Amino acid sequence: MQAPNMGPAGLTLVIVKKALLQAIQNLVPSMSDYRIYDSHNSMFNTPPVFSIYVAMLNLRWLKEMGGVKQAEQKNIAKANLLYDAIDRSNCFYGLADKADRSRMNITFKMYNRERETEFC
């Protein structure tokens, strides 16, 4: 499965065992030291409130859809539908080899480059 975006830029979700945090021996900058975030209940820096809110909405939506597995199956079906249409088309062709096709960024072009502006 390809990694989806959980929300807009500015949000990082870190899941780590506390025992691993205590085992860190290297000095790292405070912004990258998750021990500091842990000791401040994740409030070491001003939280990106909008990004957190959007992530919450996204996670609720994902849960309502049936979870990650269900979303993956739906996205596979949508991508296959689009790729099948491109593969059958006399107007379009895919740019990626079939084995390397993305389900998130479907790239294609028109055989007749002069009609691309009209298409767009």
Explain what the structure shows.
The protein has 120 residues and is mainly alpha-helical. Helices cover 44% and strands 5% of the residues. The protein has 5 helices and 2 strands. It has helices spanning 18-22, 34-39, 49-65, 68-88, 116-119; strands at 92-94, 108-110. Strands 1-2 form a two-stranded antiparallel ribbon. The radius of gyration is 21 Å and the shape is elongated. The two termini are 29 Å apart. The mean pLDDT is 89.
Observed structural traits:
mainly alpha
In DSSP terms, counting alpha (H) and pi (I) runs of 4 or more, how many helices? 5
- Low-confidence stretches at least 5 residues in length (pLDDT < 50)? none
Distance between the termini: 29 Å
**What is the number of E strands?**
2
Estimated helix fraction: 40-55%
**Major sheet size, sense and barrel closure:** 2 strands, antiparallel
Let me know the average pLDDT: 89
* Rg of Cα set: 21 Å
Order of helices and strands: HHHHEEH
Structural class: mainly alpha
- Strands across the major sheet, in which order? 1-2
What would you call the shape? Answer: elongated
Counting copies of identical and different chains, the oligomeric state is: single chain
Percentage of residues in strands = 5-15%
